[in-house]
Design a protein that fits this description.
elongated, mainly alpha, 92 residues, 6 helices, single chain
Length: 92
């Protein structure tokens, strides 16, 4: 979904025009340089941490970053798990 939003395309358009191998490359790129809104949240947290740091308070980045979804976010899971299979099924 994040990729579709960033590219200004619908999921249907991505399914029709993007190969599974290209999608896997985007997934790997996202791990290095986040494509979604999390990147903006990390950047905002860095600013918050720096502002507090300039006033003498130590605020770790993990405490300054926005937490969306409450308890659901605590369990770390692969957001792309099963994506390739879903795309394959959708194109059949």
């Amino acid at each position: 979904m994040s990729l579709a939003l960033r590219m200004g395309r619908t999921l249907s358009e991505l399914r029709q025009s993007m190969t599974a191998s290209e999608m896997l490359m985007w997934i790997e790129y996202d791990r290095i340089s986040p494509v979604g809104d999390i990147r903006g949240d990390i950047q905002a947290a860095q600013i918050v941490s720096a502002v507090y740091g300039s006033q003498g308070a130590k605020v770790p980045l993990s405490d300054a970053i926005l937490q969306w979804g409450g308890e659901e976010q605590q369990t770390e899971k692969d957001p792309f798990a099963g994506l390739e299979e879903a795309l394959t099924e959708a194109t059949k």
